[in-house]
């Protein structure tokens, strides 16, 4: 019997709850300030509107305010003046009227059931008073708004503005990567009545730029935009030859190797580039398309490159099949001039977060590569990847792709530091990319995220040696003890076609000016030779 009574209790309780909601009362609201619903104010005046509200159920929730251009402003019951109270509350909203006209301010009070009290409406007439006017531009610098300068030059853009009300507040500047640059009155020259706002830019790259400046007052009324169109021209400097690296070595990736080997002219152009820029180390791409069909040409290319000062030529690959193909060439006695290293380019951090496959490829290279040096390209590593990779490499080529070498060391410092702290005495070659493509994008910053705008333009304007010197100056000023755990033999450049497009080189090598390093027994007769004539292809 008690069990049945329990069910009866719940059966009765549920409908009683709904019946109670059916008798909820709507809130009551009335104006308290201003006392009249029709008011007249002057331009610039502020009015504090106040609504008293009550609800017999004690479930006041909030108020919506509309008018004066506001998208509705909602004020909840606890955001009120005085002690929050859901039975009796005072809601308020302040407006400043900055222009003449007729305005309507509407308030709607509601409870937790979203039952609304009748609308309360204020009609506001705004008449003349002190009208805020827009600041005016009275002078600009440069006066000419189409400007032509050379790379590396700076321009100080300036706008002098005045404001009748004496309310100047600041300026905004857009262009050349600004997003935007804001300057307040405190950093300008002048006062609230008349002031000069300025923004200086240094233009390090050729191209066309647009610089825009606007001055505003404390009511955010803006002057007309002032726009300068700037064309930045290159300074004609010949960087088609480079002094030897102060570190002793300089390295180059060779892309489009099939094009290089397709004609004597193309091969000579690459060899001339190697000689002119004192390249001592090479890494050759695309061998899977050239081996075994071009084995003879590859052997002769290695021969001639080493006559011009190259001490090491690496074979690039991305799989065990690639390296097995290279080793077939290495073991073929018909081709006497061999590769010196095996180089792995497999961006596992983009494709396979597990480093194990990468490490397995390095182990395969070490097994099949006889006494060849093992090398790899590295971008971004996980913390646990550094040690197993360092244990397997002779040379590490580290991604340092930036637009300006002044930021290159900071860009790759942490990765260099982690390798240095392992004390493996590993050789780390920072890689600078000479890419600047597509030109239509790179010459017109700001650049899209996918644009390949790296150091190409900087190298065109400043040359290879300066890039290396800038990096090493930053590196040498760092006092970290981690540097004792690594070596920097030189810098790597990606890649031949991009670098030659930016710095240039002669069309043919000069075999009458050979470095001492090419002395050797080239003809196999047991004597030391100094080759002074071109080997026939």
Brief description of this entry?
Helices cover 24% and strands 33% of the residues.
Describe the model.
The protein is elongated and about 105 Å long. By secondary structure, the protein is of the alpha/beta class. Strands 18-19-20-21-22-23-24-28 form an 8-stranded parallel β-barrel, surrounded by 4 helices. The chain has 3 domains: 25-127, Immunoglobulin-like (Sandwich), CATH 2.60.40; 136-233, Immunoglobulins (Immunoglobulin-like, Sandwich), CATH 2.60.40; 249-511, TIM Barrel (Alpha-Beta Barrel).
Attribute tags:
Immunoglobulin-like; 3 domains; 28 strands; single chain; TIM Barrel; about 525 residues; elongated
What does the secondary structure layout of this molecule look like, with pairings?
Elements: H1 2-22, E1 28-33, E2 38-42, E3 46-54, E4 60-67, E5 70-76, E6 88-96, E7 101-111, E8 120-127, E9 136-141, E10 146-150, E11 154-162, E12 168-175, E13 178-184, E14 189-190, E15 194-202, E16 207-217, E17 226-233, E18 249-254, H2 257-260, H3 264-276, E19 281-284, H4 295-307, E20 312-317, H5 320-330, E21 341-344, H6 348-351, H7 356-368, E22 373-378, H8 386-390, E23 395-399, H9 408-420, E24 426-433, E25 436-437, H10 439-442, E26 452-453, H11 456-462, H12 464-477, E27 486-487, E28 490-494, H13 496-503
Parallel strand pairs: 2-8, 10-17, 18-19, 18-28, 19-20, 20-21, 21-22, 22-23, 23-24, 24-27, 24-28
Antiparallel strand pairs: 1-3, 3-6, 4-5, 4-7, 7-8, 9-11, 11-15, 12-13, 12-16, 14-15, 16-17, 25-26
């Amino acid at each position: 019997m008690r069990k049945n009574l329990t069910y009866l209790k719940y059966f009765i309780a549920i409908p009683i709850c709904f019946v109670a909601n059916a008798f909820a009362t709507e809130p009551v609201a009335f104006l308290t300030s201003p006392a009249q619903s029709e008011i007249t104010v002057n331009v610039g005046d502020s009015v504090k509107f106040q609504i008293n509200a009550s609800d017999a159920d004690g479930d006041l929730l909030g108020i919506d305010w509309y008018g004066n251009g506001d998208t509705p402003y909602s004020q909840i019951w606890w955001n009120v003046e005085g002690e929050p109270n859901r039975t009796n509350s005072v809601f308020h909203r302040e407006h400043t009227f900055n222009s003449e006209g007729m305005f309507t301010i509407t308030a709607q009070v509601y409870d937790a059931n979203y039952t609304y009290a009748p609308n309360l409406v204020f009609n506001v007439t705004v008449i003349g008073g002190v009208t805020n006017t827009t600041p005016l531009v009275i002078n600009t610098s440069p006066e000419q708004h189409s400007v032509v300068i050379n790379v590396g030059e700076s321009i100080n853009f300036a706008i002098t503005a005045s404001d009748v009300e004496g309310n100047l507040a600041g300026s905004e500047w857009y262009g050349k990567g600004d997003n935007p640059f804001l300057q307040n009155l405190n950093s300008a020259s002048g006062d609230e009545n008349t002031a000069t706002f300025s923004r200086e830019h240094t233009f390090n790259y050729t191209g066309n730029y647009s610089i825009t400046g606007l001055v505003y007052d404390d009511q955010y009324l803006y002057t007309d935009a002032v726009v300068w169109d700037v064309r930045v021209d290159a300074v004609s400097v010949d960087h088609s030859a480079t002094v030897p690296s102060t570190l002793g070595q300089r390295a180059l990736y060779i892309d489009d190797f099939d094009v290089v080997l397709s004609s004597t002219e193309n091969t000579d152009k690459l060899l001339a580039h190697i000689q002119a820029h004192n390249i001592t180390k090479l890494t050759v791409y695309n061998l899977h398309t050239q081996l075994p069909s071009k084995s003879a040409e590859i052997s002769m290319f290695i021969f001639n490159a080493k006559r011009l000062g190259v001490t090491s030529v690496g074979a690039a690959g991305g799989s065990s099949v690639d390296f097995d193909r290279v080793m077939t060439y290495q073991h073929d006695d018909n081709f006497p001039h061999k590769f010196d290293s095996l180089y792995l380019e497999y961006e596992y951090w983009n494709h396979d977060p597990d480093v194990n496959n990468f490490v397995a490829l390095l182990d395969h290279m070490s097994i099949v590569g006889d006494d060849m040096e093992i090398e790899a390209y590295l971008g971004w590593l996980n913390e646990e990847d550094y040690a197993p990779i360092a244990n397997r490499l002779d040379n590490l080529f580290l991604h340092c792709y930036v637009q300006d070498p002044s930021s290159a060391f900071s860009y790759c410092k942490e990765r260099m530091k982690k390798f240095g702290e392992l004390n493996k005495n590993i050789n780390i070659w920072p890689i600078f990319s000479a890419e600047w493509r597509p030109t239509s994008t790179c010459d017109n910053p700001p650049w899209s995220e996918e644009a390949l705008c790296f150091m190409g333009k900087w190298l065109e304007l400043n040359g290879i040696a300066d890039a290396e010197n800038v990096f090493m100056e930053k590196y040498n000023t760092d006092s970290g003890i981690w540097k004792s755990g690594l070596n920097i033999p030189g810098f790597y450049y990606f890649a031949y076609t991009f670098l030659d497009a930016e710095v240039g080189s002669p069309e043919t090598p000069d075999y009458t000016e050979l470095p001492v390093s090419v002395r050797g027994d080239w003809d196999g007769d047991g004597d030391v030779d100094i080759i002074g004539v071109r080997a026939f292809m």
